[in-house]
Amino acid sequence: MSAESRRPGNLVIGLAALLVACLAVGSWLLVQERSAKDDLGRAQAQVQKLTGENEAEQAALGAAKTILAEITSYSWKDGEHEFAWLDKIANTELKDKLAPNVSGLQKAIVDGKVSAKGQVVDAAARAVSGTQVEVLAFVDQALTDETNKDVKIEQQRVSMTMKLVGDTWLVDRLELLSGDNAGADPSGASGEGTP
């Protein structure tokens, strides 16, 4: 065979090798594109999850602050010592523990002519899920009564779980970590102090 007859064979082999190389590069690029789309999809899903959790944290934290201010604010004057915040408790067991003690607490508030103003001074939230958020709150409660006009500040630290029920964030768990009633049964059954 002459050199001229080998050239078309070499050319065919060279073109076939080039075609295989192009197919390999094309396949690699296709896999990389699909992988990038998958990575982008996962990243977008993670952003969406974190955004949802952040929104849940903020909404639950706002509801928790409102409820804690309601729980720790009352007055012995008529109609200002209602316990309407009990309706904001999702946990039936907790609600059942607290409800029987309401009349006793109302009586103690009226008899002692006690007034209280609670304020959440700081709080933080951590989303467990999009419908459950743990909250740690620092509440200062200013207490006065008719016999002692001096204001007593009680600092209470509260751990609670907020649960989304329908469109509303409700209390699912409530625990006093510090203050005069720390460690006491949240129902007030221990007979110590007022909320």
Number of helices: 3
Mean pLDDT: 81
Low-confidence stretches: 185-194
Q: What is the helical fraction, as a range of percent? A: 40-55%
The beta-strand count equals 5
- Characterize the overall form: rod-shaped
User: Multimeric state of these chains?
Assistant: single chain
Describe the main β-sheet briefly.
Answer: 5 strands, antiparallel
Quote the distance from N terminus to C terminus: 106 Å
- CATH topology: the name is Nuclear Transport Factor 2, Chain: A
Please report the first level of CATH classification, the CATH class. Answer: Alpha Beta
The neighbouring-strand order within the major sheet is 1-2-3-4-5
Instruction: Label the CATH architecture.
Output: Roll
Instruction: Tell me the structural class.
Output: alpha+beta
- Rg, alpha carbons: 33 Å
**H/E series, N to C?**
HEHHEEEE
Structurally, the number of domains stands at 1
Strand fraction equals: 25-35%
Please tell me about this protein's structure.
The chain is α+β, with helices and mostly antiparallel strands. The protein has 3 helices and 5 strands. The protein has one domain: Roll (Nuclear Transport Factor 2, Chain: A), CATH 3.10.450.50. The chain has a 5-stranded antiparallel sheet with strand order 1-2-3-4-5. Strand 4 and strand 5 form a beta hairpin. The chain starts with a helix and ends in a 17-residue tail after the last strand.
